[in-house]
């Protein structure tokens, strides 16, 4: 069988930006006083760069929340599987990578995050080879415009929250997400204040980052129904499928989740057992583009909208997520990350690593660029500055 192009090198690069000053946890996590010192001590990611004998290079990102060199080491370890393969054979390569650890129980975690970054880089090469932007390659409309919401209004005191909401309105956003998870009274008061400040014409979502037990989530959800909330995101633990089912059955607010889930198998449980109304996989964690196409097929068969998750990733993850949002017809809004973990230190991996493939942003809508592949222009100076 003739091979038209060959992979000649795979490089994993870990980037870490230490926080100059300690910060309070910007999302709800258990034992925050202890864990914030580990979880939020730095901005971090692992990039994957794949080179071919045709001179075409692709970039991907492995989603990183802890121990960023773990995914780097995994990519380097399975590199021999990729050398000499045709990068257009994404399905074959994905199955090879997954098969390496499938019978050892690796359906989630660092291994899946590692192969996600590899897969994204391969799709970047496919788009460049065919001179097509990724969204067009996987079936999206030409010249897409995507409704976007500002993410997120973090809990940093009421005055700061309202200032942030106003900043988003001034930037042209017509939708925004509020981080909650501080407790019943504080959360309800915060949502009420933001709603009053921005008015009824702005779409609001809330995100608890798994901060509640089921009864607390139910109590808060009932109260939030008064404020016309578009969805209630990750109210409880990712593993509590029965709890998700109870909330979905009991609340008028749509329930969203999925950023903490991996592969079609994890998302299937969330849809079938949890009965969530919206899923939000992260392409650089859930298995890459190859797997997310399957997840989308699964969710569409249950009429559950697929919205992309970006979170505090680098611009590479945000860029490929934009392409998925443009390609999937049911992805009715895009998470456009605007805030960093630290209010005093911007995230250069988000803002300076590469420009996003955005042609314009006006009246709450992103007009996507049509550069081939993911459309990245990587700043090598940022890589050299923050490389571990």
UniProtKB/TrEMBL annotation:
GO molecular function, one term: hydro-lyase activity
Name the record gives this protein: Mandelate racemase/muconate lactonizing enzyme family protein
Positions of the Mandelate racemase/muconate lactonizing enzyme C-terminal domain: 158-254
GO biological process: amino acid catabolic process; carbohydrate catabolic process
SMART domains: MR_MLE
Domain of life: Bacteria
Keywords of this entry: Magnesium, Metal-binding
PROSITE patterns attached to this UniProt entry: MR_MLE_1
Signal peptide: none
Organism taxonomic ancestry: Bacteria, Bacillati, Bacillota, Clostridia, Eubacteriales
Required cofactor(s): Mg(2+)
Pfam families attached to this UniProt entry: MR_MLE_C, MR_MLE_N
InterPro entries on file: Enolase-like_C_sf (IPR036849), Enolase-like_N (IPR029017), Enolase_C-like (IPR029065), Mandel_Rmase/mucon_lact_enz_CS (IPR018110), Mandelate_racemase_C (IPR013342), Mandelate_racemase_N_dom (IPR013341), RHMD-like (IPR046945)
